[in-house]
Amino acid sequence: MISKEQLEQRYKDVFESKSTHVVRSPGRINIIGEHTDYNEGFVLPTAIDKAIYVAVGKRDDHLIRLYAEDFKSYFEIALDDIKPIAEGWPNYILGVVNQLRERALPLGGFNMYIDGDVPLGAGLSSSAALECAAGFALNVVFDLQLQRVDIAKIGQLAEHTYAGVKCGIMDQFASVMSKAGHVVKLDCRDLSFVYTPLELGDYAILLLNTNVKHSLASSAYNDRRESCEEGVRLVQAKYPEVNSLRDVSVAMLDELVKSVDDDIYTKCRFVVEENQRLNDACAALERGDLEQLGQQLFRAHEGLSKEYGVSCPELDFLVEYVREFPEVLGARMMGGGFGGCTINLVKKSFQDLLIERLTPIYQTKFGLDLTAIKVVPSNGTEILI
Ligand code: GAF
Fold first, then answer.
1. Cα separation of 219 and 197, whole Å?
2. In this predicted model, what pLDDT tens digit does every residue of 331-343 receive, in sequence order?
3. Residue 57 forms beta bridges with which residues?
4. Other beta carbons within 10 Å of 352
5. What is the pLDDT of residues 34-47, one digit of tens each?
6. Among 144, 156, 216, 320, which residue's CB has the most CB atoms within a 10 Å radius?
7. Are 315 and 342 in contact (CB under 8 A)?
8. How many CB atoms sit inside 10 A of residue 37's CB?
9. Is the pTM of this model over 0.80?
10. Protein residue with its CA nearest to atom 1 in ligand 1
């Protein structure tokens, strides 16, 4: 947690003026429902107690000046010159600004100081948190009258256009809309949602960060999305009323995709089954059946690894290792994949022992540090007052 006073002071040091607002926008976890959001399916995320913070203030000119504490790096551009840069953190903010300008909203120059405690590249959506923090802050500073959901959509489009990842809406939605102590069951088709209390009794959510991030993750992500869209096109040949994999059954895939392209078939079937798993997991959570919930997590991992092909040896190892322990009810890779964290449902009293045992084994096997992160379901984006 970084305090408002610290952020205001750092803004003052960097820009030699006073900020007017400080915004906190959190990272997220997702209990289950992976790669379903861009297929109009369901997801079950919530924000965590790790966030991106921005302090912001208007300028008298039309310049945007940014400073990212993590990279100790400045960036400056005139509002009228906005375009994506080759790569790097400014794109997430520039992408948001670009979206606001495309909507002809009245923006002026501003300074923005950025800090945070969401581990970067860990699959906890630090980029979505940054987009939402920036969108939320600019909404307040320039009185743009945007709703929270608009800010999430703007963040998603920023990611598509300025970061080149054709992501779904889950990460941005979770960052702005979450409620402490709850998960959000979000229907990504119409963005209707319900909050469900995350009551885990003697169990807790523990994240294990592989500290692996594969450089081809973005293109592999976009490839998966294309495979899903191709599967839908094949089904539409006979069922034109189908819009997305949400409308597709395994029987339809068996009939129309299997013999045409086995790889597309396997990936599409994973998505259809993942939606079903999410519904089963929600029902288990509602009746307090944590064992059943955990089983769904293990099954989801199998699918993500063997069918959807978005895991990696480090993630597979972590999930296999924890399977041995009765104190771990479930585990799976989380988020887009190819690195990042596993999410584990672990008996509270066993967490530290598990971390202690696993850390040296992981280090010996992969030559990498393992980082354990305990998270608490938290509120979405807010102005710090
Ligand atoms: C990433 C994306 F940004 C999300 O939209 C989602 O598709 C997720 O991967 C996989 O479920 O976090």
1. 35
2. 999 999 999 999 9
3. 111
4. 12
5. 999 999 999 999 99
6. 156
7. yes
8. 22
9. yes
10. 336
Q: Which helix (H) or strand (E) holds 233?
A: helix 217-236
ipTM: 0.99
Token reading at 380: 């979405």
Take residue 365 and report the two structure tokens written for it: 């096997």
Distance CA 210, CA 306 (A): 19
Q: Is 332 in the pocket of ligand 1 (CB under 6 A)?
A: no
For residue 128, give both structure tokens. 């979505």
- Strand order through the sheet with 328-333: 328-333, 339-347, 203-213, 371-374
Q: Quick one: which H or E segment has residue 106?
A: none
**In this predicted structure, what is the pLDDT of residue 77?**
98
Q: Ligand 1 centre and the CA of 124: distance in Å? A: 10
Q: Given 3-state DSSP classes, what are the helix, strand and coil percentages for the chain, each rounded to the nearest 5? A: 45, 25, 30
Written as one letter, the residue type at 174 is: A
The mean of the pLDDT values for the chain is 97
Structure token pair of residue 274: 């993942």
φ, ψ for residue 202, nearest 5 deg:
-80, 0
